């Protein structure tokens, strides 16, 4: 099944080697992950939800360096569209070895003041979306592969105004550890990366500079993380980290 809204840019070399699908890859951490995995030699399916132009920029950056990539659209919470997404990855690249699910939204409010419509939006994207993508990944990732979800350090930091968002990421933690056990005998690792404060549009949007400075000071390294910091952790889990399984890996500069 081919998604008519997708587009592909690639080198003319035959499909060889490992294949990664990165959701939410049109910007921020997702883009850094897609480009880092491509630099490691993986062919990359660049998933996006709405911004085709930015996804094509990621594809262009990868192919300019000699890699192979394509941009494919899907709503991660829609099981039909996600199945079609995996179908297209398999048809274009011959299979899928690594699935990195970075797609997510963060809407901040105290519990008392939260608009429940925002709660439902985060549940749909962050919880249902993770589950739907993980379900297809569990069915399709080849032996020797890796599934990498995205959690957040706020699950354990318990910062005010993050309750609803942290609740969605706590669900990701539970899904990750259980799925790792369910894939026993398949030689597929399942882990989650939990970034700390990271300088992305998702994180910085709506925050005053004083708040950003305070968050940056939380880490002993006294700075915000960068998307490249997080991408290095993903590359480790996607490649050499075959004995790391069922874990939530905190990539946060030492924030506790």
Task: Give an account of the 3D structure.
This protein is of the alpha/beta class and 256 residues long. It has a single domain (7-247), classed as NAD(P)-binding Rossmann-like Domain (Rossmann fold, 3-Layer(aba) Sandwich), CATH 3.40.50.720. 45% of the residues lie in helices and 15% in strands. The chain has nine helices and eight strands. It has helices at residues 28-39, 52-64, 79-93, 116-140, 154-157, 163-182, 201-204, 209-217, 227-238; strands at 7-9, 19-23, 43-48, 69-73, 98-101, 146-150, 189-195, 248-251. The protein has an eight-stranded mixed β-sheet, with helices on both faces. Helix 1 links the parallel strand 2 (19-23) and strand 3. The longest helix has 25 residues, at 116-140.
